[in-house]
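Researcher: Going back to the complex we discussed earlier. I've cleaned up the inputs and rechecked each line, so this should be the final set. Can you rerun the prediction on the complete assembly and write out the structure?
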Amino acid sequence: ETGVTQTPRHLVMGMTNKKSLKCEQHLGHNAMYWYKQSAKKPLELMFVYNFKEQTENNSVPSRFSPECPNSSHLFLHLHTLQPEDSALYLCASSQRGAGETQYFGPGTRLLVL
Amino acid sequence: AQKITQTQPGMFVQEKEAVTLDCTYDTSDPSYGLFWYKQPSSGEMIFLIYQGSYDQQNATEGRYSLNFQKARKSANLVISASQLGDSAMYFCAAGGDRGSTLGRLYFGRGTQLTVWP
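Model: Rerun complete. Updated structure for the full complex:
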C-alpha cells in the first residue's frame, strides 16, 4: 500500500449506531488530519494530530471522537450521529516542519439515516 | 486566518485548449504557501502544485502552472492542453510556507472544470 488509505469507502448507519472510520498513511509523515466535506460547503477541518498529539479541535461535536494511536494511524469514532453529519470524510497527512503539503486519502462517504 | 476566494463555480474548456482557474487570497502572514488540489468525482483530493510566497518564479508541474501575482494576492492555476481526464473540482488552498509548523490549510469553495471533446 502507498499513500493514504481510508476504510470503509462507503458507510450507511442509523442514528443509534456506533461505527469507526480508519485512516492509515504510508508516507512516514508525522501529522494527520480529519476533514468533513458536505455538499455546498467548503472543506471543514475537524481535527489535527501532530506526533500523535491532538493539536486542534475545530469545535467538533462530541459525537465525533478521534483517536491517533501512532503517527501512521488515525481513527474517527462515530456515535449517535445526525442526518446532517452525512458527508465525505477525508483524512490527510503531512510532514510538519518540512513542507506543509497535505496528502489525502480517498475519503469515506457517510450516510446517516 | 487566511481567506481563499474562488469566484468561478464552473468552467468549461474544449479538449487541448488551455484554461485558467482563478484564486485570490487574503492573509496577514508574511510567509505562506499556496496549493492547488484536484478532486475527481471519486472523492480523493489530489495535490497538484505548490507556490511559496517567497518563490521568485511561478511554479510549474507538467501541464500545470501557477500564475502567482503577489501584489494582487492572486494564485491562478493554468492547465495547458486540457484533457478529458482533467474534468474535476479544483480547490485552491493557503497555509504555512514550507518549513513552518502552522499545520493547517484554508480551502476555497472550488471550481468545477468540465472538459468537452
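Model: Worth noting: The interface with chain A takes residues 33, 35, 37, 42-47, 50, 91, 95-105, 107-110 of chain B (CB under 8 Å).
Researcher: Good, that matches what I expected from the previous run.
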